[in-house]
Structure formats: C-alpha cells, structure tokens
Design goal:
- By secondary structure, the chain is of the alpha/beta class.
- The chain folds into three domains: about 80 residues, Winged helix-like DNA-binding domain superfamily/Winged helix DNA-binding domain (Arc Repressor Mutant, subunit A); about 100 residues, Periplasmic binding protein-like II (D-Maltodextrin-Binding Protein, domain 2), CATH 3.40.190; about 80 residues, Periplasmic binding protein-like II (D-Maltodextrin-Binding Protein, domain 2, 3-Layer(aba) Sandwich), CATH 3.40.190.10.
- About 40% of the residues lie in helices and about 15% in strands.
- The protein has eleven helices and nine strands.
- The strands form three sheets. A five-stranded mixed β-sheet has the order 4-3-5-9-6. Strands 1-2 form a two-stranded antiparallel sheet.
Amino acid sequence: MSRPSLPPLAAVRVFDAAARHRNFTAAASELGMTQAAVSYQIRILEERVGGPLFVRRPRGVELSDTGRQFAKHVSDAMDILGDAFAEARGQTEERLSISVIPTFATNFLAQRLSAFHLENPSISVRIEVNEALTDFDAGEFDVGIRGGMGKWPGLASHKLMQADFTPMLSPKLADTIGGLREPADILKLPVIACDDPWWHTWFEAAGLTDVDLSMQTGLYLGTQILEANAAIAGQGVGLLTPAFHRDALELGLLIQPFDLTCSDGSGFWLVCPQSRRNTRKITVFRQWLDKALTGFGH
C-alpha cells in the first residue's frame, strides 16, 4: 500500500523548531542553520500545504490557525520518530524523566526506585518533585504522576491507586482530650487544612452532616506530606491517605482513631502524551508501578 504524499523531512524538522520557539532566529540557532535557510524551508512547506503556516509580524512570527493545528501533529510525530530511532539504534541506556507530586514521591517512589533500576538497568531515572501540572510540550518530562480524577486533555491517564482518606493525629495530641471516642471529638482539636472538601465528605460519612469548620484557624500546607509532618508534630488532625503513612502508624507517630475511610473518586495517575503512551520505557515503568503498588493501598 502506497503512502500519501509527504513533505520533505528537513522542512518538517525546521517547522517543528520554529513552531516551538515562535522565532526563526532561535530555530536557526538550535538547528545550526542560517535564518535565511530556515525561512526557505518554511516557504517550501507552506507551498506544499497551500497556505501560510506563520503570520509574519514586525517583531517576530506567530503560528497561523493552520500552523497551530499542524504543529501539534508534527510535535507528536517527531516524538514517535525520535523514540523509534533511539530503539533502532540500540541505545544501551535510556533516560526516563518523571514529574511527580510530593507525597507520592516521598512516601512511595523514592523508597522503591532502586528496585526499578535493578530490574531495568538500561533505564536511568530523573525525578522532579512538583505540584504544578507538567508541560509536556516543553519536552522536559516523559511522564507525570498526578492526583485527581484522571481527565487531562491530550494526555493518556493510567490509574495507579485510589486516594482514600481518614483523620490521623499524633497520640500525644489525642491524649490532651483523653482520646477520641467518636468523630465529633475531632472538633475539640485543631484541624489541618479545614477548607479541604474531603473533611465534609468524611464527616458526612461518619453521620455528622452539619459540621462547621469555619471557626478553625487551621494550617494550610498545600500538600499531604507536609500535613502529615504537621500532624506528627502535634499541630492538628490531618486528613491523610493511610497507605502513604503506614510507617508512621506502625512506629506510633500517628494514630488512626476511626476505621472509616472515604474516597471522592479521585486517585493517583500516571500521565503522558497520547502519542508516547506505548514507548518502551514508559510501558516498562507503568508495568513496574502496577506490580509495585499491588496491595499497597490496602
């Protein structure tokens, strides 16, 4: 079966660089070409497309509507081609760059990455811990681990585990009120992140539908790992995911006063661009995570 007519790969490569930089001079610098050569290749491509891919401005260029649509597909195709070439070349080592939220990084991933490397010595791993959403278009990361409902436009999402939650606190703080015998006793103590909607979900499941947390001064720490540390320090009651804090529970640094755990349907997800979801290193990492997480959340 014959393929449809394709433009010159050299011109496509130049377009990809120019589209990323929104600047012909910067694209020329990246590719080791002159600006005139970049302009020439773009002109060849525009002739094949039959319309402008860039809108020329006095101070630079912008992608046209056609150019924006084309750039997305070109970027995906260049990623696929790059992965295929790396695999065909038989690289002895691949690098997997991961952007991961703090709690998952600290209380799960960092403790197990050496095992991943032992099983997959040809894949080196670089991690950046960050709550911000990963910009995969920048090309800095291969995958991300995020918390949420699993729906991010343009990304493939693979659920790793459910985000259950339940109140936890230090035993010393519990002793200040003679222990917690019923859910309402929590309201006698400082509540960490009292504006977190998970609190209302948990209290309603516990049979308390009219809980008012507005009088709580609370701590607002932004991430569960910091909330857990604050709870261990006796700063208040934190709403935490038990699987991530087993060590603290076993050591008696935290207690879980009630068996009730809840979920709002959110979880922890491995995400990556749709075009790269089946690349070897991402597939290997996803399969390893699934195996390593077996039984972790229970």
